[in-house]
Amino acid sequence: MALRKLTASVFAVLALIAATAIGLTGPATAATSAAGNGQGRFAAQAKQAGLTGAEAKQLQTSVDGYLATQGGTQVAANKIALPGKGEIVVALPGERQARDLTGAKTARACPYENFCMYTGTNYSGTQFNLWRCQTYDLSNWNYPGSWINNQTPGTRARFLDRNYNTIYTTPGAYSYSSYYNWAPVWHVIPC
């Protein structure tokens, strides 16, 4: 009897291996691949930050939206690395300013040698920290926000329209604007 159970178990394992090898189990879903890439850690991070389950889901939806439009890799519950280019720090639901989920309750400063853009006025909302000199495309920035130019002294950023025409050039670094209408801006070159 024990040998029969063992033989049945071995055949079940071999059948599973064969099905996987020939593709009968289907492709990995986004949920399974996401779970393997840190979603559990991000959920724990959101919970530790005091977010409810609904707020954590709302935050992940925002992060997913930025990942879809800007690319990059999610490296924390509210942070996206743009390899070689910068980072996006998404404001938590119910909070005015973006912050890292490392225990700090204060708003993030614009790092030196970065051009920082904010989705809200007075340096609020989601924060984009850009440091590479290249063209960044904006998606759905149809509202007032703000920016800080904390690059090397004298460096200017340019805002471009949909046809890549310059519509505004910032003063040299260090400079800032607590209110800027992003609606006509389709692209930003931080240098």
From TrEMBL:
- Residues annotated as signal peptide: 1-30
Keywords of the record: Signal
UniProt superkingdom: Bacteria
Q: What is this protein called?
A: Peptidase inhibitor family I36
